[in-house]
Amino acid sequence: MSVQLSGSVLLPSLRGLLLTGLLTGALCCGTGSVCGEDWPWFLGPRHTGESGETGIVPDWTAGPPPVLWKQAIGTGYSAPSLLGDRLVVHHRQGKQEIISCRRRSSGEEIWQYTYESAFEDPYGYNNGPRCSPVLTERFCFTLGAEGMLCCVSLQDGSLVWKNDLRATFQLPEWFFGMGCSPLLDGDRLIVLVGGQPNSGVVAFDTATGRVLWEAVGKQTWDGTETPEGNRYVWTGEEMVVSYSSPIIAEIHGRRHLLCLVRQGLVSLDPATGATNFHWWFRSRVHESVNAARPIVMGDQIFLSAAYQVGSVLLKVGSDGRAVSEVWSDRSNLLAHWSTPIHVDGFVYGFSGRHENEGELRCVRLQDGAVQWSTSGFDGDLTNLRVNRANGKVVDSETGKEIPYPFFGRGSLTRVGDRFIVLGERGTLAVVDVNRERFVERGRFSLDEIGNPAWVAPVVSDGRLYLRSENWLVCLDLQSAAKGQNAAAGKGAGD
Predict the structure, then answer these.
(1) Among 63, 151, 157, 388, which has the minimal tally of Cβ within 10 Å of its Cβ?
(2) Better-predicted residue by pLDDT, 141 or 12
(3) Rounded to whole angstroms, how far apart are CA atoms 303 and 240?
(4) Whole-model pTM?
(5) Rounded to whole angstroms, how far apart are CA atoms 431 and 488?
């Protein structure tokens, strides 16, 4: 096994242990409500793309929030992660992947750890990392596009251990490299490795990198009945690699590690890797992936994928060993890479395989019915023109440049009763969490966040962090909210 161990291994502090899943790194106000929190891994402290911060009600009708700082970075699709005063972004410059730790307040680099990478995306997308860093008080874990799994010290960037997954496991060819962010569970780092024959999911010891268990592959899917009525015959040549990050949820008193791999959903015991159940959920199109994360609501699990798959709602049996279909729909919501968000019986998310199909939709969880959908624009296209000099869209009536009118295949992050939406070409908008209709509260764009903008917005301690292929930008949501509240108060008193 090609695990390299370096330096002294330190046990995480109590706070570090709590951050692995029991707490969210929240900063509490005097009332006990959350006024600020860390964002230490993919899709935030709850793994759902939802912020628990209070005191922020995004509204950009009067103008965008101020930019606090911006820093040029290398390529990649991984979101930044934040813990305490540290921000870590994983990116690539030239032939090196760079784990870069920066100050939250300014973006100034504190340390970096680098290693060589020769990854080339087969479809011409950028060649940088796709997975978000995972942070504890002592460690930073990253997974590179070629499969380099690293653990470095969060304090100084020194190497603790690393594992070249290509050398350790039998990895078949992939479409877009490694694109599934690891998941921390106590002293286990869970990675969807995608190895043959039964290393689709692997748990590593966080302190040493030692393999604790392996699961998912031939033992899971060989002989499984497919929707076409056939039994799948394992060949050993399958792509097992996933682009949907795993999540752990408690259902009927049992902890389930839910992994949406290429063939479908698998529930594992996170302590041992033993299988609870599996459910076939795969496109009939060969060049396809599952990328959106499973959503868990009580004893129900919602899955969605593009490539003519659609959505399904599953119900877990009381013994935790079986799952059954509540409903399925091949057209209501086809999530490509952006994970939808569930709020009070409704799922909000982006649907569409291609940009021109992209729509933000609201789907009723009870039966899968689409409540509303929008491309982001319902005006008159004849009033718009393109400035050939810079490619910006211009409103012919006002003569002013406007954000790109269509969202495309966007991403969204929830803050209270609002969504922060990031469109594929960099359009930022605030949208109400509203099951009845689409309500927008202003939009803007930044020159630094352009096409393709595929990294979900990050909200941490009153700030909004955005990452493009070339820039990392920090905006102040808190002062913008205070300014809006002050303006509203003044108007009320006039």
Answers:
(1) 388
(2) 141
(3) 18
(4) 0.92
(5) 19
